[in-house]
Each structure stands twice: as C-alpha cells, then as structure tokens.
C-alpha cells in the first residue's frame, strides 16, 4: 500500500512538473511577442509641409475615378467611387506628376454633398518615392476649405500624424471633373 501511494505521488508529481514546464514555455512564447524598444538616442520628429493638386477625372474614356456603388436614393447618398487620381505640383494636369491619390470616397450625408474620404497619397518621385500618407475624414465638398486628418503613413512618413486642407481649384459642373488643392502638414520621424 505504501509503495502504491509513493508511486502515485511520484506519477502525479512528474505529470505536474511536465505540465508546468509546457505551460511555462507556452506562456513565455506569448509574453515574448511584445517588448519595449530601448532607444539610446532620442528620435527627432520632423514637420513637413507640401502642396499638391489632385485631379479627379470622372468623365471621358480614361477616368481616374469610377463609381463602384450606385446610390439607392434620389440624391447621391450611398454612392461610392474608387479613385487613382494624379497628384501634381501645379493645377494643370500637364504639370509635374509626383504621385497618386488612391482610395475611395463615399457620399455619406443625406443633407449635403459630404464625402467620407479614405485615401493614400502614394509618392512616386524623388526623396519620398514609394512613401505614403494616409488621409481619412469628412469632406464637405462645397465648403471653401475642408480639413481632414492624416492618420498614418509608410516609408519616410512612418508614424505620420497631421492634417490636410483641401480647396477646390476647379470644378466642371457638366462633367464632374475637379482639381483640388491639398495643403499637407505632417509630423513624422
């Protein structure tokens, strides 16, 4: 009887040690996925400002924005457009191309032309080539100035925060084509 108790005790003890070891390894693997970076040098933030012109072309044989969801109401509420709009240094489409505004805009207001904008400014030239800035916010189209937040970025704009101010430079009522000036203020590392 004492031998059975001793063997039972050792079996239980051995199983407990094995389970504890397995659980410790599993827990340490889970805990080790997140750790603080020890920064020996302070990271300097930069504030960048630039102006670009977005060309939203919905007419013609080569539109840069197309409607992907039609509205189900008499006004434009619910319409969604996908865009791959050129970003240029000047208001003319023939001015220097520096990137694309890629994303979508949706008519999100039933009372006015208020758009929900989600887009990336994808830069294709110079120092910022392949870096992006992500903008998401409300664009009340007929307001003189519209402000939307910069919520992130990639490349040289990693961890970006800031805002854009949009001003309509030109709107063709017949075609719906527009040129919008974007002034961007962005804090990044």
UniProtKB/TrEMBL annotation:
The keyword Ubl conjugation does not apply. One of its GO terms (cellular component) is apoplast. Pfam families: Dirigent. Keywords: Apoplast, Secreted, Signal. GO terms for biological process: phenylpropanoid biosynthetic process. It is found in: Secreted, Extracellular space, Apoplast. Its main location: secreted. Dirigent proteins impart stereoselectivity on the phenoxy radical-coupling reaction, yielding optically active lignans from two molecules of coniferyl alcohol in the biosynthesis of lignans, flavonolignans, and alkaloids and thus plays a central role in plant secondary metabolism. Homodimer. Belongs to the plant dirigent protein family. This is Dirigent protein. It comes from Sesamum radiatum (Black benniseed).
């Amino acid at each position: 009887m004492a031998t059975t108790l001793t063997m039972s005790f050792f079996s239980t003890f051995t199983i407990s040690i094995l389970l504890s070891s397995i659980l410790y390894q599993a827990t340490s693997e889970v805990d080790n996925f997140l750790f603080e970076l020890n920064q020996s040098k302070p990271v300097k933030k930069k504030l960048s400002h630039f102006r670009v012109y977005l060309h939203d072309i919905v007419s013609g044989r080569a539109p840069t924005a197309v409607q992907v969801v039609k509205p189900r109401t008499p006004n434009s509420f619910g319409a969604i457009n996908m865009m791959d709009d050129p970003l240029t240094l000047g208001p003319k489409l023939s001015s220097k191309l520096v990137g694309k505004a890629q994303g979508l805009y949706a008519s999100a207001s039933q009372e006015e032309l208020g758009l929900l904008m989600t887009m990336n400014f994808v830069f294709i030239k110079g120092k910022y080539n392949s870096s992006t800035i992500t903008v998401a916010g409300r664009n009340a189209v007929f307001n003189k100035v519209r402000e939307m937040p910069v919520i992130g970025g990639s490349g040289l704009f990693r961890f970006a925060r800031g805002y854009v101010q949009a001003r309509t430079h030109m709107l063709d009522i017949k075609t719906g084509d527009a040129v919008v000036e974007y002034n961007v203020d962005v804090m990044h590392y």
